Amino acid sequence: MSVIVEDVVMSEETTGLAGLRVMVTGAAGGLGRATAEALHTAGAHLVLTTRDAASLDRAAAGLDRGPEVVTAAADVTDDADLVKAVELATARLGGIDVLVNNAGVGGPAGPAWEIDPAQWWHALEVNLGGALAACRAVLPGMIERGRGRVVTLSSHAGHTRWPHLSAYSVSKAAVNKLTENLAIELLPHGISAFSYHPGIVDVGLGAAAPQSDNPWQRRVDTWLGQQREAGRYTPLDAAIANLLRLIGGEADALTGRYLTHDDDLAGLVAAAGRT
Length: 275
Description:
Layout: H1 2-11, E1 21-24, H2 30-41, E2 45-50, H3 56-60, E3 69-73, H4 79-93, E4 98-101, H5 117-145, E5 148-153, H6 156-159, H7 166-186, E6 191-197, H8 215-229, H9 236-248, E7 258-260, H10 265-274
């Protein structure tokens, strides 16, 4: 254990992924799992959280060689769960360098005035409240060390709109604003924050689903199918590429920004340096 922690400390002052200690929420499937695999391959130590213990094995499957992987059942709507996960990560790895807020739900489909209010608010509780709760658990350690990064998965639906998925759209818009505010508040502590749109990917919320009984959800699924057929889905490796660059620190000069899978991060950083 001491060897692993020493390796991490030695690499903390450099950008890149090798040796970084990265916490990924919602890591059992979809984009979270793909991100964890890419990070592990690149040499990052992982803290993988899932909503329940039953999915922990799936989150860590095949990641038993190389960098250390810590798993913890932590529902992002439960502050105590997240605090325990961070405590475990600190005991095993010495801390967390990067938080990836990946856990999320699609929320209910339908006209906003017809949706069950409890279901609508639950999407906000997970997508926005869960990201904030994870920040509350992780940021004190980052602030103490004087460095860190927070990357929260967002969506074009939060940058514009997604009618009939209003809870999802509003939650992602709020995530973008949360990121903007966090970035300013964290500047004195050497911590950067980003919201990141990976595109529509064929895993997780973007994956093909069995036909729903909800006619509004069927409309959403039909639209997604049309996007897939038209070639507008983002290949998974392309979706993850810029995410890894954010995690590794290549774009820290852009802290507070909403960034996407097709942004030229190097160009944006260069432009920021000229202003």
